[in-house]
Amino acid sequence: MAIDQFLVIIGGLGLSTLVAWYFWFSEKKAVKIESSDSGIQEAIIKVKGGYTPDVLIFEAGKPIKLNFIREETAVCTEEVVFSDFNKRATLTPFKIVPIELKIEKPGEYGFQCGMGMVKGKLIVQ
User: Fold this and answer.
1) Angstrom distance (rounded) from CA 121 to CA 84
2) Which residue among 3, 18, 89, 100 is least enclosed by CB atoms within 10 Å?
3) What fold is seen in the domain 31-124?
4) How confident is the model at residue 70, as a pLDDT?
5) CB proximity list for 111: less than 8 A, separation 6 or greater
6) What is the value of pTM for the model shown?
7) Cβ atoms of residues 101 and 87 within 8 Å
8) Could you state, in order of their start, the residue ranges of all structural domains in the chain?
9) Which residues pair with 79 in a beta bridge?
10) Is the peptide bond before 93 cis (omega within 30 degrees of 0)?
11) What is the pLDDT of residues 11-43, one digit of tens each?
């Protein structure tokens, strides 16, 4: 095996490790959402290849309003599903789609695209 082949293999393994770490092992930063003067906890979630932010922290018992803005036309992200609440919504590209929830019980609640490939989490304390 020539040195250039060896370097290409080592480089490929290094990049594969970096990609695996980024998608599966890197810690996601949670964003704490504060209540407005009206008592509503409101967040804007951008949808483009994923949810940004994808982990949000809320206070239990207060109304939650999630404003999704889909900045792409990919089929995967055209729907968001909150299976714990039997709620789903179609996300129109480049428009804000509000989803309102009121979660009384503390816990972690997932949400995802209709295909289950893009995921996020609501942490209620």
Assistant:
1) 11
2) 3
3) Immunoglobulin-like (2.60.40)
4) 98
5) 51, 80, 81, 82, 83, 119, 120, 121, 122
6) 0.79
7) yes
8) 31-124
9) 90
10) no
11) 888 888 877 776 666 666 899 999 988 999 999
